[in-house]
Amino acid sequence: MHYFLELFVVLVLGSVAMHVSDPGVASSLEPLRIDGNLSFHDVSLAARDFGNRYRLLPSAVLHPGSVSDVAATVRHVFGMGSGSKLTVAARGHGHSLQGQAQADGGIVVRMENLRGCETKVHDGEQPYVDASGGALWFNVLLECLKHGLAPKSWTDYLHLTIGGTLSNAGISGQAFRHGPQISNVHQLEIVTGKGELLNCSAEENADLFYAALGGLGQFGIITRARIALEPAPKMVKWIRVLYSDFASFTEDQEMLISLKETFDYIEGFVIINRTGLLNNWRSSFNPQNPVQASEFDSDGRILFCLEMTKNFDQDTAEIMNQVKLLHTTSPPMHVRIRSPPRSLVIRLPLWLQQVEALLSKLRYIPSTLFQSEVSYLEFLDRVHVSEVKLRSKGLWEVPHPWLNLLIPRTRIRDFAAEVFGKILQDSNNGPVLLYPLNKSKWDNRTSAVIPDEEIFYLVAFLSSAPSSSDHDSLDRALKQNDRILDFCKQAGIRMKQYLPYYTMQEEWRAHFGDRWVDFARRKGVYDPLYILAPGQRIFQKAVRSS
Ligand code: FAD
Questions:
Q1: In sequence order, what are the residues at sequence separation of 6 or more whose Cβ sits closer than 8 angstroms to the Cβ of residue 203?
Q2: Confidence of residue 314 (pLDDT cuts 50, 70, 90)
């Protein structure tokens, strides 16, 4: 009995001690010669993330002054051998949800501070950009736009790092055409778990290249990435329509992603029991039919919003404005635009005709057609606008019990029938995204795991749980997530989690399925001491006493 009590005290105090910066770590890192610096005191930021639920204090934070700092640090920890419990986590923008970029008692590498990897855009027939693994996509976009170029595949939010999203997949409404972000990378520079600095691509060190893409940070720290670019559109027509019938909504989404000539971005979201929905939209969208739209009532209803965009260029936008004016203004204006360049006059109807033709194929509720025209940058950076609003109300840095699922197409209706309106009775705590993706645009040599069907849906429950509004909101949201996961299990829906979170290795094995063997093999090759990304909780560093 006494023995068990002692063991209990050791375990509990031991786990508390893990949260205190270990003075032994500072002396063990003393021999390291680096360009940047290691901080042992100001480490609390590295114990936070967007999820706001997990706080694991590291012993040190590395602010790398160069790529060699990252390599030297990992090499040093590797050299300490299996007798050391030190681990290393790359931290991008810290927008993980459950401590995935944290390292309990270990070293966190602040990738955003990485110096010596400036963003370089290469024009030409197949343009690309070389950027630091710690660069924010938003900053990379700004640099590319100076050259009239932009990456092809996006996330909905741009204030995430290249290394952070490439370690997952990076998906948004362009993925049906271009694949996820991990399908748009030519080359990576990586520091492996042994501290080697390697270049890799489909031709060179291909196994490491594919391992790292979607690899949850397990095989190396991405210090640089070469990303495919395309000519950047200047403007987008941004359209939203509503459905009350789930089958029509998803059939239309699937039809749109199957067409060659289609919208440039296709997403969707679920709205449950929202008051004054269309009135809220009016601040940024114009209703096609204002009178009918004002009569539309969303209260108590389950609705499905299809959201899409069509890119067009500035000249067309100007002509469109002029055409609008032509209909509404006096003769002098009429005279000024009487002879616009012929090519532009011909292009305008084509763009619009294409949009009109696509809209005419859809079965949405006619009074709910809303449109807007914004710059490409404004569209891509749209979530940041919400971030600014939420921050001003103190609603950004709150717990985020998010759940992201990839549901096979053949079971999406069963899923919707049980979850929307039954398990989830309103969508007031955050958006619920739902849109289709296609397996053929994903490369099965990467580490990303998706369902085994050509079409599958991302269903993302993006809840916020501010304690100011309701003390139980976090608990309720977590229970709701559990009910959704339990339902999938009981109904035999072979879904996969996106941004997966598991705590036990057997759950990870189930997640990877028959790809687990390869995943574990790659871990053994590139990070044999299990040093990297411990916050994913896939592999546990085993400490052996000598
Ligand atoms: P971090 O949270 O810092 O790190 C994530 C993981 O990657 C950790 O395990 C970390 O150790 C590892 N890592 C970080 N940098 C590197 C590196 N250079 N090399 C190797 N490993 C590294 N995802 C989508 O796909 N589509 C979306 O539309 C989308 N929208 C989002 C919107 C918001 C508001 C938020 C908060 C997240 C969203 N995400 C989306 C999820 C996002 O892609 C992931 O959470 C991503 O990991 C965050 O990037 P980060 O730079 O903050 O990474």
A1: none
A2: low
Cα distance between residue 80 and residue 75, in whole Å: 9
- C-alpha 451/C-alpha 5 separation (Å) is 46
Residue 178 to residue 286: CA distance in whole angstroms = 29
* Residue 3 alpha carbon to ligand 1 centre in Å: 44
**Ligand 1 contact via 208 beta carbon (within 6 Å):** no
State the distance from the centre of ligand 1 to the C-alpha of 50, rounded, in angstroms.
Answer: 10
Distance (Å) from CA 105 to ligand 1 centroid:
21
Pocket test for ligand 1, best of 53, 137, 167 (most atoms within 8 A of CB): 167
- Write phi, then psi, for 114 (nearest 5 degrees): -60, 125
CA distance 376 to 122: 21
The encoded tokens of residue 178 equal: 């271009």
Residue 257 near residue 176 (C-beta atoms within 8 A): yes
Residue 232 is encoded by which pair of tokens? Answer: 């950047």
CA dihedral 56, 59, 61, 62 (to 10 degrees): -140
Longest dimension (CA), the chain: 98
One-character DSSP codes across 438-459: EGGGS-TTSS----SSSEEEEE
Contact (CB, 8 A) for 186 and 128: yes
Measuring CA to CA, how many Å separate 382 from each of 156, 462, 494, 500? 8, 16, 32, 25
Confidence of residue 452 (pLDDT cuts 50, 70, 90): very high
Active-site residues, by number, are: 95, 156, 267
CA–CA dist 92, 103 (Å, integer): 13
Question: Which residue's alpha carbon is nearest to atom 21 within ligand 1?
Answer: 217
Reply yes or no on whether the pLDDT at 160 is more than 80.
yes
Tokens 């304690």 label which residue?
467
- Of 152, 157, 364, 153, nearest in space to 253 by CA: 364
CA angle 138, 161, 78 (to 5 degrees): 160
Please give the Cα distance from 266 to 250 (Å, whole number): 11
**pLDDT tens digits, residue range 217-262?**
999 999 999 999 999 999 999 999 999 999 999 999 999 999 999 9
Residue with tokens 């609603």: 395
